[in-house]
Amino acid sequence: MLPSSTLFTFFLLSIITFVSSQLSNPSASLENGNVKLTFNVPTSLREELVVIRLDRGDGSRSQNILFIYKADFSTKVEATLTNKLTVTTSASERKVEIAISGVQSGDAGMYQCWDGAGASGTVLPNCGHKLIIVSKPKPPSILSLTSALEGQTLKLSCNTSSTSLPPDHGLNSNILWRDEQNTIIGIPAGNKFVMNADGHLEILNIQRLDRGRKFTCTSSDKADNINNAPVSDPSLPYEIKPEYKPSSSDMVLDPAIVSDSKIVKHENEDLTITCTITCEPACSVQWSFQAYASSSFSPVQLSESHILNLKVKQTDQGTYRCTGTNKYGETYKEFQLEVHYINTPVVRVNEKTEDSSRVVENEQVRLYCTIDAKPVPKITWNSPTGVLVSEEGKPSPQVSSRVLQNNYTNSYTLNSVQCENSGMYSCEGHNIVSSVERKINILVMCPPSSSAIPALALEPEYVWEMSKSLSFSFVIKAFPEPEVIRVISMVNDISRTEEKNKDITITKSSKYDGKDYLTKFTFTVIRTLDMNDKDRTFKMTFESSEFKRDLQFIIRPRGPPQPVTNITTVDITHNSVKIFWFAAFNGGEQQNFNVEYRHLTESSSSPWTTGAKDIKDLHLSGMWTEAVIENLGSSTDYEFRIVSSNTLGTAQSLPFRIKTLDGLSKSLNGGVIAGIVITVIIFIVVIFIAAILIYRKKTILRYMALNLEFLLIDKLSFLKYFYFIFLV
After folding, report:
1. Is the model's pTM score more than 0.85?
2. Was domain 21-134 assigned CATH 3.90.960.10?
3. Residue 183 CB coordination number (10 Å)
4. 554 forms bridges with which residues in the sheet?
């Protein structure tokens, strides 16, 4: 390869046409060959120097090869090429001959004579020579120019890719075609294969037997003086796939079916027929169906178009056809399908055909079930709780003109239906073929009422734990489904409207236990409940599109007990004391009382001691609870308290002090005590009556619990207290 020259930077800006015979007959050589190039230098020169340059035609800079001096026609070889070039000149003939040994691809191109060096030089006409280096082409590719239609000629083109240089060498390609046996074909032309003047292979009279035959081609660049030009590697094989119009012989049904034959199937049996067809180009396959009383075929929707896959039904009876189609035509095969069947029942309620029926409570309901079947079916009516009737159907008229029918009917009457009769009723039919079923949802309309479901009935009374909110669920029996449109509560003859999402929340869940007539509600009080809500009655108004009804319940509190009230001490002796008190709210559960005391000194107090234990609250309104504490020390200061308790907690009264008498003191006699007790009872009754007349809202027990201090007095102070009251 000739190295690039660094002497000139001139770029050719115009296309030059050469007219000498030397330019029209380029020299060609294989790589490593020896080449002689002859140049005729004109006599009329403008400059003192002629330069022969090489233009490789690939866009790279041209290279200086040889310098010829005008004065004496002497020459000088480019310094880098002295070992590669041999120059012979004839001044008289104005000829220069350049011999190049061991040519390479880089030596290919146009060798041109220039009058002058540098940018001022011009190309000399009729003084130049093209050198072509012939190389091995890249593997060609085969392209079909026509379709391989049966009975027609297939024409193939061998697309070559030359690597000879320069790129514009202009050499023609020499094409050779071979078959799968690597035998050259088309030269000379035969009855089957012909290579035309363009190098295309023509395969005559394509037949189906030609399917699978394979052909390759090779190419080489054709140069006049080269007999052994390099040949490309073979192309990828081209395989013949003859194209043709399909025929019935190309189609296969599996399992095999004779045309116009009949297949008998029971309903719900599987029917699978595979339709395959050999076509070129490939055929699309479509199953179509002609139903009873129809005059045309319609496509069958299948997951795989060539496989007829049915779970046979009575409506599938008819003619099935498999059609194979390509761009040249179509063919088909068909068969008849006869079905023994039992069809889905048709259900009517009071002569109306529907899937769901609404009836009014206490109405009479007539159920009808019609089944299209062959042979005669046994028809059974089932209710949500069991079998109503089961017997062979009675013949009834055909109702469709599109499908062959054998209709049979069975009926049953429900007298005076109730809400509980709501539910899913089913008609079942069966014969030797199979069993079928149709369900109908019968909805009995009824007004709202509480269900009898354990733990989900609307109870007349609910208890709430005072430390928690009140929330409970219940199921209402009603249809249509009701809504709670209003909640009003009342206590002590005072009512209030409970606002949703402020005072209460009510959520509901439809179709409890799958039953349309049962609706589950969850009622939650979100406002804070206190003792003012004790025995509060809630009235809920339920409304549906058909009914409106009020249902109510009462709430009771539940929690730790409240501290006792009105603690009174009597009969204080040197070693005992009797204590009376009123029981406060018991928290909604059984409460017990413990009386505890401890000895007081000036410096400290001793631990609490239980003086009376597990005294039961007898729930007697207005009655005192009492306890006698004994074994006390004489003339001693004690601190007492009363502890109320139930399963949810405890409550302690305020501590109160008592001092026992010395050993010589005497307690009041029994008559005085009885008088005191009677006086207290009369006083309580008077206060209670006065409170009812004036306020009518609060009981005397609550008033005394909130406003009266404990009466912690000894015998004399106790008498003075009530004496003062009566004087007033």
Report:
1. no
2. no
3. 9
4. 461, 537
